[in-house]
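TASK: fixed-backbone design
INPUT:
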């Protein structure tokens, strides 16, 4: 069985997500889940950046920018959603963040379901 990437930290993050979902349910806008997750990360004394702006480059020229919901301990990208269900676009978005920033693991979480749903996404191009 392959080793789980960033096992302890990712389990802690998923625990935070379940706790937030348990307390707030599934009926709010994404920004409220972001605020709750931010508070929980602080309480757990985890180092994180919220709404991290990252430049999108082509041939070393900036062509745009995007925002990562959370970068936790400089190891895991956390992207939050409040959608009916994940789409291929959601997975592509997280994978693009991972590849562009050379990060190995991303977690995509959806608070809209009756039960929290999440997926771990690995960057196969990680060096």
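OUTPUT:
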């Amino acid at each position: 069985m392959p080793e789980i990437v960033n096992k302890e930290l990712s389990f802690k993050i998923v625990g935070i997500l379940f706790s937030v979902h348990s307390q707030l349910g599934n009926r709010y806008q994404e920004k409220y889940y972001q605020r709750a997750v931010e508070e929980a990360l602080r309480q757990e004394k985890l180092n994180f950046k919220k709404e991290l702006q990252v430049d999108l480059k082509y041939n070393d020229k900036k062509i745009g920018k995007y925002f990562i919901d959370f970068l936790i301990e400089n190891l895991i990208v956390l992207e939050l959603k409040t959608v009916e269900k994940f789409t291929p676009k959601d997975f592509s978005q997280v994978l693009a963040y991972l590849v562009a920033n050379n990060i190995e693991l991303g977690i995509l979480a959806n608070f809209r379901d009756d039960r929290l749903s999440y997926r771990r996404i690995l960057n196969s191009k990680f060096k």
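COMMENT: The CA atoms of residues 107 and 120 lie 5 Å apart.
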